[in-house]
């Protein structure tokens, strides 16, 4: 009961803090992190939902609770990590931080799915969730690498160098690794052939 009360109190205090101006606006980490009115609104929503779920996790006299007895603290700790990831996700303005926030949301949820030690269905669902999460993360990173590599998004801007110098850096890299250059050329040629 103490864990649930502590989680509810923490979420409620953070929720109240967003109204008292404890959430400073602006940017940080080289504009990768930004706090604006919409991100504060979504953080309030996530914190309120977290407090509600912590209330629902309050131990009761049920013979088969959804959160096993003795594991309430673990479950609430994982939920706090997931809500933290949600708050990072809505404040991210850079693709790398967006991916980090997304992983911080999903990894605790994977553990929450399989938290019941005596239910085989929970372990099976957790394993399926791990594989699905790994596959989707791989596809997301694959797509993000194209956004970074083909558009020059972030490379020259983050290094504070002119775009021409960034293009020269990429050209030197492709000269050093000809297999990467061949793969990139194949990607650039094949879509054109399919459209012709």
> Compute the gyration radius: what is it?
22 Å
Average of per-residue pLDDT values? 79
Distance between the termini: 66 Å
Please mark out the parts with pLDDT under 50 across 5 or more consecutive residues, or reply none: 192-196
Helix content bin: over 70%
Number of helices, where a helix is a run of at least 4 consecutive DSSP H or I residues: 8
CA-based shape: flat
Judged by helices, strands and strand pairing, the structural class is mainly alpha
* DSSP E strands, number: 2
The sequence of SSEs as H and E is HEEHHHHHHH
Identify the strand order in the major beta sheet. Answer: 1-2
- As a percent range, the share of strand residues is under 5%
Instruction: Sketch the major β-sheet.
Output: 2 strands, antiparallel
Jot down its keywords.
two-stranded antiparallel sheet; 8 helices
Give a description of the structure:
This protein is mainly alpha-helical. The chain contains eight helices and two strands; from the N terminus they run αββααααααα. Strand 1 and strand 2 form a beta hairpin. It is flat and about 65 Å long. 14% of the residues are buried.
Summarize the structure.
This protein is mainly alpha-helical and 196 residues long.
Helix-strand blueprint:
Blueprint (H helix, E strand, L loop, with lengths): L1 H18 L6 E3 L4 E3 L1 H20 L15 H20 L3 H19 L6 H32 L3 H5 L3 H14 L1 H18 L1
Antiparallel strand pairs: 1-2
Helix pairs in contact: 1-2, 2-3, 3-4, 4-5
